[in-house]
Amino acid sequence: MKKRDMNRDWIATARTLSEALPYLQRYAGAIVVIKFGGHAMGDDEAMDTFARDIVLMRQVGVNPVIVHGGGPMINEMLDKLEIKSDFVRGKRVTDTATMEVVEMVLSGRVNKRIVQAINAQGGRAVGLSGKDANLIFCKQTNPELGLVGTPSEIDPSILRTLFDAGVIPVIAPLGAGHNGETYNINGDTAAGAIAAALKADRLLLLTDVAGVKNKEGEVLTAITAEQIREMTADGTIAGGMIPKTETALDAIEGGVRAVVILDGRAPNATLLELFTEHGAGSLIRASFD
Ligand SMILES: Nc1ncnc2c1ncn2[C@@H]1O[C@H](COP(=O)(O)OP(=O)(O)O)[C@@H](O)[C@H]1O
Ligand SMILES: CC(=O)N[C@@H](CCC(=O)OP(=O)(O)O)C(=O)O
């Protein structure tokens, strides 16, 4: 299949996971950044399946880094507190009161739920946010969005320390400002910036759709930067898909080898993408030569 050819430098030729098993050691040392979106988290079963895949990945020597979202969980808490919030091009307009809720929900409930799920599957996960160990400093994205941040300096050294210790980092997308501010970073944006800083082998953006769809609603297995620009301009790519495709382009420009947008709720989604020939979702690479 065409997509398979484009992956030949890194992905196995196995058709099934069991066929891939004897070859898994070839991935030892690879860095795979996985954005786990709020919509992809679904119920406890989806969380457990995700956690099992991540632990298996770590057991074969891959260094997985989880960067999570949690938009729906933030919405739920804002509703309870009767705080209104608006989105502009997929990003939440964040004032001080909203920021407090975002930090509590992401660094607290959502981060620890993922850490606990991975540890329950036999892994060793540690939760942190972009504020820990100076991982992410931000500048303001746009005054109209308030405390939404764009990562400006990333220090991934803490992640390498965790890799060496066999620990799986689970990162909430928050950043520090140089004047003591806390910034809300879109989860996709944070994952892309971390993947670029690590020059990751793969960035997987897990969501609740099978991939990027064209006007006819068909999932595109491979997309170029040019197609993404056209589809965004004509409105085919909209809402939450905008930060994902923008992230994919920035990550590739920043040195990530390939980005895949895929359905995180599909059984064994991440393992199938990494270890089998057919992969899953929409693959974005610098060039398809
Ligand atoms: N061209 C497109 N292809 C696929 N999904 C799209 C497209 N344009 C907009 N979307 C929307 O983007 C959503 C994914 O973004 P979002 O809801 O923010 O996900 P997550 O919470 O997983 O980060 C999809 O559920 C879909 O409704
Ligand atoms: C700036 C911005 O929009 N931040 C997001 C952070 C969480 C996120 O990205 O969650 P999902 O991946 O589940 O959508 C927010 O406040 O919702």
From TrEMBL:
User: Does Kinase count among this protein's keywords?
Assistant: yes
The residues the record assigns to binding substrate are 70-71, 92, 184
Q: Which family does it belong to?
A: Belongs to the acetylglutamate kinase family. ArgB subfamily.
**Protein EC:** 2.7.2.8
Task: Provide the reaction this enzyme catalyses.
Answer: N-acetyl-L-glutamate + ATP = N-acetyl-L-glutamyl 5-phosphate + ADP
Question: Main localization of the protein?
Answer: cytoplasm
One matching Pfam family, short form?
AA_kinase
Could you identify this protein by its name? Acetylglutamate kinase
